[in-house]
Amino acid sequence: MAVFTNKQIVGARGDAESLLSIVEANIGTFNEINTATLMSQLRQLPRQTIAKVKRDRRYFDLIQRLPAVMEEGGVAVVAITCHALVKLDERDTADAALSYAELRADTLLEEATPQNVANLAWSMARRGWRATDSPRFVKGVEARAESLVKEGSTQEVANTAWAFAKMKADAPGLFWEIDKRADWLVKNGHPQHIANTAWAFGVLGEKGTKLFKTIDERAGWLVSKGK
């Protein structure tokens, strides 16, 4: 049943009424994957559509179910849910979800992918959290810095760096690993990813010797691509 429901959610292709109808018909049997998939679909809706959806009783029923869903799910479910709640501007619920993620950070980060980490970090930063609000999360990311940078995409690495700068998070190990892979980042990253990363180094006072040297060497290309 859960697999069929997930196919229905994906098949709705971002149509708000279809998604809400699926909620109404299946909310009692939703598992954590169904809910995370639905939240992922909702966060991609246009802003005006989201405003309309948020006035719907079926949406309210879904939001009320989220605390239990997060307890049942792993890091991917938690990360997607937090990211979606911030995108949907569900401020109180998002803060509660992020607090839960911080509380479970030690275990969640053991299995987190770079995308999971980037989603959580972005969500915390967008909600105005600081490193003092999420010490377990910051410490856990710092401990996994090498693998997260090595395995992550340029966007995931850049988003995490940007979020840590916004959070005023002291993470020298993370930025050391990013600087070590500066050639990869600048060669493969979108100019916006590179700009966000450079900004993060500057805000936190990280030297970024290799990063800024590589940016300088490819300045002409970055300017032309960044127009």
TrEMBL record:
The lineage of its organism: Eukaryota, Sar, Stramenopiles, Ochrophyta, Bolidophyceae. This is Uncharacterized protein. InterPro entries: FAST_kinase.
